[in-house]
Each structure stands twice: as C-alpha cells, then as structure tokens.
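User: Sequence for 6-phosphofructokinase, liver type below. Tokens please.
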Amino acid sequence: VGAPAAGMNAAVRSAVRIGICQGHTVYVVSDGFEGLSKGQIREVGWHDVAGWLGRGGSMLGTKRTLPKTCMEKIVENVRKFNIQGLLVIGGFEAYEGVLQLVEARGPYEELCIIMCVIPATISNNVPGTDFSLGSDTAVNAAMESCDRIKQSASGTKRRVFIVETMGGYCGYLSTVTGIAVGADAAYVYEDPFTIHDLKANVEHLTDKMKTDIQRGLVLRNEKCHEHYTTEFLYNLYSSEGKGIFDCRINVLGHLQQGGAPTPFDRNYGTKLGVKAVLWMSEKLQEVYRKGRVFANSGDSACVIGLRKKVVAFSPVTELKKVTDFEHRLPQEQWWLNLRLMLKMLANYQISLTEYISGKMEHVTRRTL
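Assistant: Structure tokens for 6-phosphofructokinase, liver type:
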C-alpha cells in the first residue's frame, strides 16, 4: 500500500515462505486495498516469489487507496476468501488503512482478524518504528545524486546548489542525506526556520566562498515551509550572492526511490517478513475458537518496527494517540537530535552543551 519502496519484495518473499512453512495458505493481493476490494487475490506457492529479494519497487503493485472508500467490498472479499490474517506492507497509508479496518470492526465482524503492518516508505514517517523499509536505499540514492552534483561544481568555481528531496512533511531524508554529503544547511518542517536563519545561512556561505572550498550545498525538504519554496530560496541566494557566487536548483524527485534495495533493506525486509508472520501465527492460535478466528482486542492489529535495539509490535490503536494525521508524522522523532551535529559539521558557531543532552544508555546482554 502507498508508494513503492525498495525492500518491499524482500519482505513479501520471506513472509510468503515462512507462512507456507507454518502451514498457512498464503494469498497475495495486487494493488493494495483497491485490489482487495476488487478481488485481485491469488494463492501463491514457494516458487512464485523466487528471485524477489533484490528487486526494487513493488512486484505486487501499490495503490494509495484507503479502505474507507470501499469498506463493503473489502469485507465481502475477506468473507469470500475466508481470510484470517492480513499482512500489510506499506507507508503511512498502510498504517492508516489498518487503523480504519480496526475501527470498522464494530459493524463488520469479518474484520475481527489478525492484522500486521510492515512500515515500508522512503519518508520514514510511520509511527512505531525508528526505521522504515526503503529509507536506507532512498538516503543512499539521494547521497549519490548529491555527490555527483558536488562533483560538477569542482569545474565551475563558486557555486551553491539547492537540492530538493522528497518525504512529504517528514524531514528525515534531507537531514540524514545532509549529514552524509556534508551539506551547509538542511531545511525541514519539524525544525521551524525564519528569514533570520536564511540570512545567517547566506552570510555563512558568503564567508565560505572566501576560503578554499568554493561550493555550497543546501538541502530542502519538499514541504518544509509553505512560503519559502525552492524557487524562493533560489531567488534569495541568487540576489544575496550576486558577484560572490551563483546558484542552481536540483529537484531529485523519484530518483530517490532507488533502484535495487541496499543490503540493509534486503536484510531488514527479510527479517521483518519472518518476524511478522511468526507473530501472526502465534496470535492466530491464541484467538482460534470453535473452528474460527475471532480477534477484537487492540493488540491483534500491530505495527512491527525497530525501536532502538529491539523489534517491537505496537498496537495501531495506541499509536493513534502519538500521530499527527494532518501532516502524516509521528509526534516524536529520534533523528531531530542529529540536526545540531549537522550545524557543527558545517562549521557554525554553536555550543556543544546543547548537543550532548542525554546520558549514555547502559548496555546489558538483554538489550543486545
């Protein structure tokens, strides 16, 4: 469900095969919730998913449709195919969709089944996990593009590039890519910035042009500010840097979805697929009564994710409390602490006391 992300196929492959090992009948649905409503459901065997590990994008096809638009038809197909568990791989839409299915359990008894979401999106904006499937590949793709852009500047002296990354309102991509490529600034929605910050950045770049390194790189998340658009930043930097440096825009766009998934995403996708299906098998046995599955507790629909060092399952009903649905973001994000490091490395004058805030966690055998 949602937009294609690298590693989705690795997760499908491992989930299908572990499901077969566990003795389940495994069906795959094409085109997300829309396919589920239209009955695009087929049974798969062991060999149908052979060679899917290194494939980028999504072999099953993805759609952004949410279930509330076609709830009756979805329920009808769940009844028709006798589906007792649903594994949804996708981004924020997958999480929101499963939440809608859980909330529709009252009128529709057929939806009292086990559901699990594997977060797979380049934006990394799904609550309940620190890393989404596909975000590692996206950072690598953005990093390679930025490296090439910087390389093109080595011929022409004194140039500043403004690079726009994807990710909706979530600034994960631009922050982490900024650290990876040594950007001078990364503008994101979560860390509000004003015209004074822009002014400081322009002055900083003007000073930088007087040194040996005569190029600058500024990253901007696509929805970081409704008025300070990429075009606006381009005009600002061009007029302020007149005679000192010139400016160019690059919008990375769908390059960031990456080609083949990186080793991390393949590995992570495979692990999540296995863990999700094993968890679902366990839950199905718990709620199996009188020849049928009936699950209406909150913990029967979860998001699987990596939280710090552990793979955890978080019920979607609980995650709803910590989600900003308007901007499609979790309310707390771990990577915001990295942003001060970005400033330090770009040689801004900031105090280190701001950056080093928390205490080191004590590592035990259990947490490892």
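The chain has two domains: 8-134+261-325, 139-256+334-354.
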